[in-house]
Structure prediction request, 279 residues.
Amino acid sequence: AKELGRNNFCYYSPELNRHSTERLIMEFALSTAIQNAQLFLLYQPKVDLLTNRITGMEALLRWRHPTLGLIAPDKFIPLAEETGLIIPIGYWAIREACAQNRKWQDYNTTRLRVAVNLSLRQLNDSSLIENIRAILDETDLDPRYLELEITETAVMSNPDKASALLNELRAMNISVAIDDFGTGYSSLAYLKQFPIRAVKIDRSFVQGIPANHDDSAITKAIINLAHSLECSVIAEGAETQQQYDFLRDHDCDSVQGYYFSEPMSADSFGDLLRTQTTL
Ligand code: C2E
Ligand code: CA
Ligand code: CA
Ligand code: CA
Prediction:
C-alpha cells in the first residue's frame, strides 16, 4: 500500500484514456472530412416579417461520418476550433455556400444573400480577406450576396482589429451581421463604429417572448437599438406564431426559425425558392 501511494501520480484512469482516444479518433476523422466529402451545408431561410418572403438564408455546417453518423456543429466545431481545423473547414463552407448561391441565381430572378458563420479563430486568420476575395472570384458570386455572421463576443474580443476587418469587408461590398446579439457586453458606443448590416437577436431571448418579461424587454431594446444605428434586425429561433406576432408588432425586420422552416438541404431550398419566384 505504501508503494502504491507513492505512485499515485501516474495512476491509470480508463475513463480518461477512453476520452482521449475518442478525441484522437474524432480529430483524425475531422482532419480527413473535407477530402472524404463528408461535410455538407444545410440552408435555413430568413423571412421578411411584413411580406413573408425569403430574403436570405444561413448556411449551417453538417458532418456525416460513415461510422460516427451525422454530427451536429456543436459536437465538432469546438474540436475544429481547438485544433485549427476550423480554418480549412471554414473556407470550405464559404466556398460551398458561394458556389451554391451562384447556382441558385441561374434559375431564379430573386437574388438572395447567403450568410456564413465565421468564428473568432477564422476572424484572426491573416489570409482571411485575401482568401474570401479568391473564393468570390472563383465562384463568380457578386459580393453583395455574401454575408458573414460574426458573434458579438468574437467582435468584442478585439474591437479595434474587428473594426479594421469589418471596414475591409464593407469596402468589398460584403455584409456583416452580428450573431448571438445580447449575449455579450457590447456598448452602444462600440457598435456605432462598426459597419454592420444586421443584428441577430440570440435565440435565448426569442424563446422567452412573449411570456417572459425580461426576454421581451431585451428583445424590444435590441430592435430599437439596432434601428437607431440603421441596422436591420433579425430574430433567430422563432418557433411559434406568438413569437412571430410579438416580433412583427415590435418592428423586427425578419425572422429565422423552425416556425417557418428548419435548416434544409440545398435541393429542398432550391425547390422552395422556385415556388417563391412564381408567386
Ligand atoms: P448559430 O450561428 O447561432 O446558428 C443558429 C442555430 O440555431 C443553428 O444550429 C440552427 O439550426 C438553430 N436553429 C434555427 N432555428 C431554430 C429554432 O427555431 N429552434 C431551435 N431550437 N434551433 C434553431 P446548428 O445548425 O446546430 O449550428 C450551431 C452553431 O454551429 C451555429 O450557431 C454556429 O455557431 C456554428 N456553425 C454552424 N455552421 C458553421 C460554419 O460553417 N462555420 C462556423 N464557424 N460555425 C458554424
Ligand atoms: Ca449564425
Ligand atoms: Ca445563436
Ligand atoms: Ca452563433
